[in-house]
Fold this sequence. Notes:
The protein is of the alpha+beta class. 54% of the residues lie in helices and 16% in strands. The chain has nine helices and five strands. It has helices spanning 11-28, 36-62, 64-93, 152-162, 164-169, 176-183, 189-192, 196-200, 210-220, and strands spanning 32-33, 96-102, 105-114, 117-126, 134-139. It has a five-stranded antiparallel β-sheet with strand order 1-2-3-4-5, covered by helices on one side. A hairpin with a 2-residue loop joins strand 3 (105-114) and strand 4 (117-126).
Amino acid sequence: MAESKISPYNLADLKNTTDDALGNYMRSLGFQQDNKTTDIKLAVGYVGCIIAAATFAADYKLGWEATKTWTAVAVFAYMMLNGFYSYWVYFVEKGLVFEGTKSGKHVSISSKTNKHEPTYHLTITTNAPSTDPRKIQAPFPTWFTADGFFVAKPFQQWLASSVGVIGDADAKNAMRDQRDELAAPKMPAAEASVPEDIANGTVDSTGLENKGKSNKRSKRK
């Protein structure tokens, strides 16, 4: 169980904590993380900060008249960088949490949540056996306690049993039946359906045979 406690009602905290746990889990299985997508985003952000800082420093030391042309160029460059940054985040990165490779098997995992819905959505793309993205989801209470502590075991079992590449790397947690129960708890049989005898009218809800009741009524008459 995680030592840090978060609010179980804060969707952003639930997602961020789970995202961090996912990356740590994948690295613990020996997946070599590819940071290229994240590095490009960070590089663009740093360049934008450098442009803004340099423009401010030049204007402070040289004055507006001496720097207005370069300021206009800097503003245009910053706008272009900001546009590229937004494009990269929304259309390339798309909520990427982890991307890595192990033994020639590549996996890319993106996460998202929907507003007012305590459910963790993942999109997984691998190079084996299929390159088609797979979508899975599970409620956060599957691996968070009621008071906000993260429990790693059910989260790892859910991932290992849902994604073949991860299950191959962590066979002990690839328990498909247990995953199904965790992600979609089944209603007890007594609550899920009405016994056949009751449905057919042979036995009532108290367990007594209707036939016997009918005979007693006829005798009284």
